[in-house]
Automatic annotation (TrEMBL):
Taxonomic classification: Bacteria, Pseudomonadati, Pseudomonadota, Alphaproteobacteria, Hyphomicrobiales
Family statement: Belongs to the AHA1 family.
Origin: domain of life: Bacteria
CDD domains: SRPBCC_CalC_Aha1-like_7
InterPro entries, per database record: ASHA1/2-like_C, START-like_dom_sf
Domain Activator of Hsp90 ATPase homologue 1/2-like C-terminal: 18-151
Name the UniProt record assigns to this protein: Uncharacterized protein YndB with AHSA1/START domain
Amino acid sequence: MSGTSHSTFSSDRIYPVAPAELFSAFSQAERKRRWFVEGEGWQVDEFAADFRPGGSERSSFRFGGGASYSNDTTYLDIVPDKRIVFAYVMATEGKRFSASLATIEFVAEGKGTRLVYSEQAAYLDSDNTDAQTADRKAGWAELLEALARHLDETAG
């Protein structure tokens, strides 16, 4: 295996809810679990969150009975309804394959909120940065779509 490779990417999406409503989908553990780790075909082995600066989040999950994946997050900075900064490490079957620093910003826009997601990723023991970045971006696109569905389901 080779060394560590790096990438930076960002994406944004507008949601038809106020910043406080969008922020609560991240800050309330029971809400975040529903859109972040649950879903058709997914088995959640563990989900625990302590949403505060210095707090952590741990999730372990698998798709279709396949390999176990884990996500270990540390919250670095939180400004309610404005910003979340966190670092996270992902692993499969206990072997770490990436470490990232990410920022989520909530920007009021019209009657909704623009969510801006930015990530600096280090892919461990890898030389295929383009493929891994494409996979990571696709994964976050799926998560942001799951968040949109969650907001639709809980609107009212």
